[in-house]
From TrEMBL:
Belongs to the ABC transporter superfamily. This is Peptide/nickel transport system ATP-binding protein. It holds the Pfam family ABC_tran. It comes from Paenibacillus algorifonticola. The keyword Nuclease does not apply. Gene3D superfamilies: P-loop containing nucleotide triphosphate hydrolases. GO terms for biological process: transmembrane transport.
Amino acid sequence: MQPLLRVERLYKTFRKSKEQVYALKEISLQIARGECLGVVGESGSGKSTLGKVILALERPDSGEVWLDDVPLLQLKGAALREQRQHVQVVFQDPNASLNSKMPIWRSIMEPLDNFPDVMPPFLSGKRTDRIGLAAQLLELVGLPLDHLARYPHELSGGQRQRVAIARGISLNPKLLVCDEPTSSLDVSVQAQILQLLKSLKQTLGMSYLFISHDIASVQYMSDRMIVMKDGEMIDEFASSELTHQDRHIYTKLLVEAAS
Ligand SMILES: Nc1ncnc2c1ncn2[C@@H]1O[C@H](COP(=O)(O)OP(=O)(O)OP(=O)(O)O)[C@@H](O)[C@H]1O
Ligand SMILES: [Mg+2]
């Protein structure tokens, strides 16, 4: 079967003082339907840039991204807007995606409000019943209903990240990009959020690009992993084979540093 996402020969450079840095250097990869691809690598290795290019938030210098055979980087205007529903994101900092002046239910409904014709198959009821739909999304991410009318500052960091996840899944995306989704959270809460993301992947059948510098969470979440260093993909393997002796020396160093 053909992959859900194909990334071909992505290059992206940034100018840093007088030097040119490669954020992405000849990155090619694929994600199958229902698969979670994990991305690890040290700070500055290009992980977030890769995510942003796939989300069409950043333009590469060259290369192409295909989602179900649609060349994302060729799209403009209405066609690009239409495609955005299919690739959604959960960032590290939930505060960045939540409006402090909006009650939670409105933040949750914002993506669906932007796509009035979308009705995810896992929601029921009337499309116009916005509070009813927000309530179902809240339940899917394990928050009690009385949180609907609360404001972001009345929630804990973990609860806010659950709200950001509710937004992320609300349009029934084909791919959810998670960029360090637990890095801003207390250690005790991190595992709960990972569990939630993992169970949502199963129940909703989404594919994930899961980015983290925390190699253990990536191994827990993903089916396959890639390792990035200075913009290059230097290793690629099934997550179960992370500690296999054939791993790249740099991957071994990352594993060693984490244990
Ligand atoms: N908007 C930008 N302007 C200039 N340089 C940038 C920009 N975004 C990223 N870079 C540079 O590109 C490289 C890759 O950055 P990126 O944010 O993708 O790394 P990362 O792996 O996500 O790092 P981290 O783990 O710290 O989040 C770095 O050298 C970074 O400084
Ligand atoms: Mg990053």
